[in-house]
């Protein structure tokens, strides 16, 4: 990946809107991928979440197979698969199968969080041990199922079929410095979840670059940041489309697993002063607003982080406004209004 352009990708959660069925939500994710491909986005990722009524992307490999069948050029992948929830061999076989079907279009992004609450995580793992300290060993085994393992590993004679010898582009995903450092040490690409953890972005990306060691996977660092985008030229529409998601997030912070919030409920909801301050802090470094404001926000983030690209996470409540977010960002990019890190400074010299 070169540094002479800002690379654009999409992160989708297969959002289930109020009144929708799971089937409609999943079809919406496929439709989003088709739309992103037409607009020229490079990647379309889905993320693993469990037990959340408003998010239907609990099985990334299954959903990606449908996305791959509906598209032809865009890279598809996980943003990410939560490695502690699965046996590494199962992931290798699933993504080996995807690569057998869709070739080099398939990325494998991995995270170490559960993507759910503790009880659901225990149900997924069939154990009450939720320790993530074995993440490096699981990761090494997973990579080894694609590339081959040292004979000292007791799993070295096991082959992932499909998978062995068909190595995907590996990405580590995270919202802290831990994953950044691991990604750097392994010499793989790194994606930071700025769209929901914006306080540590610059420090994590700096740590990734400082930790990076060239490897068989990459010779230079490659970092993306997730940015939530809600956009319209009418500020009232931005507020209205943001409200259901904000209400759901507030309820999740209170320990609930909220059902999707209707537009009517969102319009009638009275945010407390504390909730308004929370929302302001949460959206301050995301790309909310008009097209001009979106451009300014994205450019400022890219400049401060040095990221190679941005993963757009559409945050609007309704699908047409999530599509509109992709339209606006792609239009800004085509017009030369989104620039890679250092480009603005270079242009002013």
Automatic annotation (TrEMBL):
Cite the Luciferase-like domain residue spans from the record. 19-307
Q: Main EC class of this protein?
A: oxidoreductase
The UniProt record lists the EC number as 1.-.-.-
Q: Coiled coil located at which positions?
A: none
UniProt keyword list: Oxidoreductase
What's one Pfam family here? Bac_luciferase
Q: Which InterPro entries match?
A: Bact_Lucif_Oxidored (IPR050766), CmoO-like (IPR019949), Luciferase-like_dom (IPR011251), Luciferase-like_sf (IPR036661)
Task: Output the superkingdom of the source species.
Answer: Bacteria
One molecular function GO term is:
oxidoreductase activity
Q: Which family does it belong to?
A: To bacterial alkanal monooxygenase alpha and beta chains.
Q: PANTHER family, per this entry?
A: LUCIFERASE-LIKE MONOOXYGENASE
The protein depicted here goes by the name LLM class flavin-dependent oxidoreductase
Ranked from the top, the taxonomy reads:
Bacteria, Bacillati, Actinomycetota, Actinomycetes, Micrococcales
